[in-house]
Amino acid sequence: MHSSETPDRPSRRGIVTGVAWSVPVIAFSVATPAKAASQFVCPAVPANASWTAATTGTGNNAPNSWSGTGAARAFTFFQDSNSASNTFQYRLSAPLSVVAGRTYRISYAIQNQYGCSGSATTVNTNFDGFVAGQRIGGRSSQPGNANTLQTPGPCGGGFGAVQTISVDYAATTTGTIQLQMRFTTAATTGGNGDDYRITPSIVCL
Fold this sequence. Notes:
This protein is mainly beta. It has helices spanning 12-18, 33-38; strands at residues 52-56, 65-67, 74-77, 88-98, 103-113, 125-131, 134-140, 148-149, 163-170, 175-185, 195-204.
């Protein structure tokens, strides 16, 4: 016998209400370059106490010293050779921490003046700046010497105009490099070598 009855079909509402709807939650991870960049801090010029001195030859007791603060912090070199036959060299070095992939512009702003002790005749003093063992430039206080001439200010008249030497140092490894300021005074027993004031600075590029 053929039946005309059909099985019950679920209503559309039943389908809708009978299904547990869930909306997938997608977690997004967004890189924040600004935050990553903020983790790098450009180093300052090493503190005064971080610089250590070494000498070659015999020098007098003229007082070398740091002065000023912040960007105006400078080292003044007054010491002279105390030998008529040998030069006197004074080397001031400090460690600088660097990060691989970063570039550091390291500069030495140079000023000098004629020496003011002893006789009116002064002798040449050379300045050389080094970064990671490499000489980046220098100045001489009198003509006929190894470095580019920088005419000093007059004795008692203060230091002369600023001349700057610099290098862009690209760090290939993370670690420590050495900064060095080197002063070499010609032989004299008069204690009258020329003087320098050096202001080091560091800018991260």
